[in-house]
Design goal:
Elements (H helix, E strand, L loop, with lengths): L16 E5 L3 H14 L3 E5 L2 H13 L11 E5 L7 H9 L4 H4 L3 E5 L4 H10 L3 E4 L4 H13 L4 E4 L2 E4 L19 E3 L7
Parallel strand pairs: 1-2, 1-3, 3-4, 4-5
Antiparallel strand pairs: 6-7, 6-8
């Protein structure tokens, strides 16, 4: 008689804390419910970038607390009246505290034109997700942040995850005046 083993989830996300900055109650509820179904242990919500920055200021100041977890990943809408995703992303990547600066950020937007995608990338977003959000799309962005962490780059006009998705030989004139500094950082673990 065959013995059937119970399939286990490939990830244990119970210790993961995700902050969602989203002004639409419907989208906030949808993403929050998806994350709970995925098994994410702590989902926090903010109506805009200003409230999200307040939440990060409090949570990231905590080192060890049974009640308040540090945020591991941020999901942020690009266009919000109470503090845009653009301004919030700038605030994160220019923050003095490393616990804020190095947080993986997924920009979620219904306006994902090439321009918005390029702006999000150039401001330091790790991933971009197009609305309407599907469970598969949301899970793939979270898995990308966990499974394929990119080193952070610090140059005179950019701080954020390496924007190159593949390593390849560069065949052109060197335009950099200074070499960029790669910074290895502890990333989200499952």
């Amino acid at each position: 008689m065959p013995v059937f083993e119970e399939k286990k989830s490939p990830y244990d996300l119970t210790n993961l804390s995700i902050l969602i900055a989203e002004d639409s109650n419907y989208m906030l509820s949808l993403m929050s419910n998806m994350l709970k179904i995925f098994g994410v242990g702590d989902v926090m919500a903010a109506e805009g970038g200003r409230e999200a920055s307040d939440i990060l200021t409090v949570t990231q100041a905590r080192t060890k607390s049974r009640y308040i977890r540090q945020v591991d990943i941020v999901l942020v809408d690009w266009l919000m009246p109470k503090g845009s995703g653009r301004d919030f992303l700038k605030w994160i990547r220019n923050h003095d505290s490393d616990t804020v600066r190095f947080i993986p950020v997924v920009v979620v937007s219904g306006y994902t034109t090439e321009l918005v995608t390029a702006q999000a990338r150039d401001l330091g977003a790790n991933e971009v997700l197009v609305k309407p959000v599907s469970a598969t799309g949301l899970a793939s962005r979270i898995c990308a942040v966990i499974d394929h962490p990119r080193p952070f780059i610090k140059s005179h006009n950019y701080f954020g995850p390496d924007r190159r998705r593949t390593e390849g030989p560069y065949r052109g004139p060197e335009r950099r005046v200074m070499e960029a500094e790669k910074i290895e950082v502890q990333h989200v673990t499952q």
